[in-house]
C-alpha cells in the first residue's frame, strides 16, 4: 500500500470511528432514555423506532443512487457530517421536548433526523469506503473495525453518564461530529486508473433505468428474502437494553451494566471485523450469509430461554460473531453477483432499505408483544422467524461463480 492509500485508510477508518462514536453517544441507550427519562412504554417506543425506519427506508434508495452517481466524490458525506454536528442540540432542545408535548409529532421529528442521519447515512458512508477499499487495495473489514471501536468507546461510558446527565452524551456526540468533519476535509478523492475504470465503469453514465433493472433480477429478490429474515436483529436490539436493565436490582445498575456489556460486545465485534474476511473468503459469500443468519437465530431464540444475567449476556455477545460475518458476506455477495457500479444502491436498497421496511412493520408489533406477552416469548417468536427465512435462503441464494476467484480479496465485508 503506497503512502496515499495508507493515508486514505487511516482517514477513512477515522471517519467510521467518529461516525459510530456520534451514533453510539446519542442512541446506544436511547430505549432506556425514552423509558426512564421521557416515560414511554414499549408500544410507544416501538412507534418511535417505526418512524425512524420509515424515514430511513425512504432515504436509503435515494442515498444509494446519489452515491453511485457521485462515485468517489464526497458531497453526500459532507451533508451527513453537518447533520451529525446537530445531534446534541436536536436531542436536547427539539426531540425530548416534542416527545413530551406530542408523541406522534416527536416520532415524526425523530424519524426524520435519526433515520436520515444515522440509519440511512451509515449505508452511504460504508458503501463509499468499501468502494475506495477495492480501488486502494485494503480490506474494508480492517477499516470497518474502527467503526465498531468507536461505538464501543462511547457505549462504555454512556451508561454511567446517563445516570449523571444524559445531555452530556448528546454533547459528546456533537464534539465527535466536529472531528468527523475535520477528517473528511483531509480525505483526498481517490484517482482511479484505467484498469479501475474498466472494472467499475463510469458512474456518470449510470441511469435510473440501470438501478430499476435490479427489480427484474431473481438474484436480487433472493437476497431480499435473506435480508428480511436477518433484519429482525435490528428489532430485537431496539428494546433489549430495557429488558436487560429489568434483570438488575435497580435501573441505575442495569444502565451501567448494559453500557459495559454493549461496549464489550462491540470491542469483540471489532476483532471479528478484522478476522471475518479470512473466514468468508474461505467458505464463500453464500455460506457466510447462512452462517451469520444461523447464529442470529440462535442468539434471539436463546434470549427467550435465558432467565439470568449471565446467560442473557452470553446471547447478546453472540452478536459480535454474527455481525462481522454478515457484513463481510453481504458486500462480497453483492460485488460478485451484481454490476459493480451499483454497489451503493444494492447495499442501501438490497440490505439497508429492506431492513428498515421490516423494522417499520415489526417494531410496533414487537413493542406490543413486549407489553402483552413479555420479552421472553416475543424473542422466541422472533428467533423462529429468523430460522425460517435462513432455511429458505439456503435454496434461494446462489453459490460462488467460477470467475469469483479472480475478484480481489478486498471485496469483503455491516454495525
TrEMBL record:
Its membrane topology: Multi-pass membrane protein
Pfam families named in the record: LacY_symp
Transmembrane segments: 9-34, 46-64, 76-95, 101-125, 146-164, 170-187, 220-236, 256-280, 346-366, 378-397
Record keyword NADP present: no
Subcellular location: Cell inner membrane
Keywords, comma-separated and alphabetical: Cell inner membrane, Cell membrane, Membrane, Transmembrane, Transmembrane helix, Transport
Domain Major facilitator superfamily (MFS) profile: 8-401
Highest taxon above the source species: Bacteria
PANTHER family, A to Z: 3-PHENYLPROPIONIC ACID TRANSPORTER-RELATED, BLL5896 PROTEIN
Listed name of the protein: MFS transporter
Amino acid at each position: 500500500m503506497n503512502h496515499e492509500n495508507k493515508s486514505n485508510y487511516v482517514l477513512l477508518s477515522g471517519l467510521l470511528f467518529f461516525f459510530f462514536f456520534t451514533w453510539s453517544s446519542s442512541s446506544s441507550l436511547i430505549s432506556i432514555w425514552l423509558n426512564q427519562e421521557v416515560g414511554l412504554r414499549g408500544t410507544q417506543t416501538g412507534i418511535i423506532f417505526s418512524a425512524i425506519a420509515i424515514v430511513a427506508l425512504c432515504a436509503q434508495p435515494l442515498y444509494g443512487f446519489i452515491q453511485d452517481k457521485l462515485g468517489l466524490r464526497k458531497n453526500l458525506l459532507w451533508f451527513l457530517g453537518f447533520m451529525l454536528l446537530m445531534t446534541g442540540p436536536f436531542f436536547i432542545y427539539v426531540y425530548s421536548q416534542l416527545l413530551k408535548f406530542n408523541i406522534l409529532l416527536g416520532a415524526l421529528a425523530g424519524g426524520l433526523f435519526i433515520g436520515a442521519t444515522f440509519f440511512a447515512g451509515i449505508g452511504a458512508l460504508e458503501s463509499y469506503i468499501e468502494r475506495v477499499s477495492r480501488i486502494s487495495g485494503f480490506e474494508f473489514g480492517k477499516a470497518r473495525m474502527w467503526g465498531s471501536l468507536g461505538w464501543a468507546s462511547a457505549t462504555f461510558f454512556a451508561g454511567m453518564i446517563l445516570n449523571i446527565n444524559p445531555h452530556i452524551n448528546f454533547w459528546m456526540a456533537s464534539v465527535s461530529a466536529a472531528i468527523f468533519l475535520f477528517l473528511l476535509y483531509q480525505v483526498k478523492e481517490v484517482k482511479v486508473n484505467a484498469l479501475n475504470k474498466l472494472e467499475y465503469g463510469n458512474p456518470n453514465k449510470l441511469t435510473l433505468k440501470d438501478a430499476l433493472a435490479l427489480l427484474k433480477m431473481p438474484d436480487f429478490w433472493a437476497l431480499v428474502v435473506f435480508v428480511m429474515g436477518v433484519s429482525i436483529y435490528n428489532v430485537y436490539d431496539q428494546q433489549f437494553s430495557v429488558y436487560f436493565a429489568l434483570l438488575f436490582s435497580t435501573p441505575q445498575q442495569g444502565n451501567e451494566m448494559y453500557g459495559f456489556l454493549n461496549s464489550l460486545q462491540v470491542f469483540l465485534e471489532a476483532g471479528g471485523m478484522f478476522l471475518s474476511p479470512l473466514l468468508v473468503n474461505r467458505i464463500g459469500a453464500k455460506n457466510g450469509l447462512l452462517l451469520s443468519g444461523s447464529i442470529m437465530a440462535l442468539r434471539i431464540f436463546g434470549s427467550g430461554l435465558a432467565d439470568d444475567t449471565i446467560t442473557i449476556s452470553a446471547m447478546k455477545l453472540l452478536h459480535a460473531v454474527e455481525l462481522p460475518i454478515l457484513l463481510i458476506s453481504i458486500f462480497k455477495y453483492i460485488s460478485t453477483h451484481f454490476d459493480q457500479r451499483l454497489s451503493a444502491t444494492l447495499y442501501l436498497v438490497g440490505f439497508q432499505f429492506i431492513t428498515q421496511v421490516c423494522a417499520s412493520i415489526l417494531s410496533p408489533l414487537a413493542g406490543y408483544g413486549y407489553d402483552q406477552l413479555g420479552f421472553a416469548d416475543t424473542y422466541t417468536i422472533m428467533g423462529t422467524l429468523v430460522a425460517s427465512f435462513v432455511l429458505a435462503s439456503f435454496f434461494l441464494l446462489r453459490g460462488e461463480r467460477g470467475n469469483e476467484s479472480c475478484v480481489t480479496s478486498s471485496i469483503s465485508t455491516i454495525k
